[in-house]
Amino acid sequence: MDLRVMRYLVDIVDHGGFGKAAEKVHLTQPALSKAIRGLEDELDVQLLERGRRGGSPRLTAAGEVVYRHALELLSGRKRMLEELDAMKNLQSGDLYMGLAPLGSADLFAPAIARFRSRYPHIRIHLLERGGTELEQALRNGEIELATTIVRADKDFDWLLVRDDPMMVALPSSHPLAAEPGIRLPQLAQTPLVTFETTFVLNSMIQEACLASGFEAQEVTHVTQADFGLALVAAGSGAMLLPKLVAERLHVRGVELRPLQSSSLRWQLSLIWRREAPLSFAAQAMVSIIRELRQVEPTAG
Fold this sequence. Notes:
Shape: rod-shaped
Radius of gyration: 32 Å
Number of domains: 3
CATH architecture of the largest domain: 3-Layer(aba) Sandwich
Structural class: alpha/beta
Mean pLDDT: 90
CATH topology of the largest domain: D-Maltodextrin-Binding Protein, domain 2
Number of helices: 11
Largest sheet: 9 strands, mixed
Order of helices and strands: HHHEEHEHHEHEEEHEHEHEEH
CATH superfamily of the largest domain: Periplasmic binding protein-like II
Distance between the termini: 62 Å
Helix content: 40-55%
CATH class of the largest domain: Alpha Beta
């Protein structure tokens, strides 16, 4: 059913005849009449009583029904276009975004603040989970954007936000605390405080340890870096964490040493589903993160 023809019917009724309606829609009267007859044939009902030449056509009972629904359809179309226009201009809408706890305060709080300043009418919904859970939420369509340590995945596109070396946090009394740098095999006999298994970094550390010839001795899992460092200070073990996070947290009794590894790095990225078109709000957030990424040097 063609909405244009529904509009013609409404115009004929509202303007009292074919002549004025034809002028409004820029059609000849025969063409307008043909369009209405086509609608009548499609619906298999008569919509208008034409009357005598020059008289105003009247709606039949069926025409009254179609006219009423035509008004609703045309009004719905108008509202739809207005909503779409508002979304395109970011005057309304929602942004669903997942943030990994590690590093988000440093890297994404400024982006969210800038987004809120530019687009105050967009509602932001944040989901804070480990990278593994966020990737699943992204696949399920619960969120549009997520932060995680990116690894090759054909389902996602990504924007690298931070490429950081890893640091080793050690109790001040640990024999390795005096070393200028530490290689991963040197930690083979040292218990490790690690992040929860929902953090992609957890599995990366496990794989790196196995590649170095030993299995990590995990003493406990944490979700917050500051609590992990408190456990390190208390002598529970060592901890591997990104330089950005490690240097922001100063804990008495903890020594930070660079991990001498070219393969184990914290490469935090913003990711989204490759086959799913991003909303206007999500596109705007990606643009803002690109802006901020250009003015902040990547760590080496």
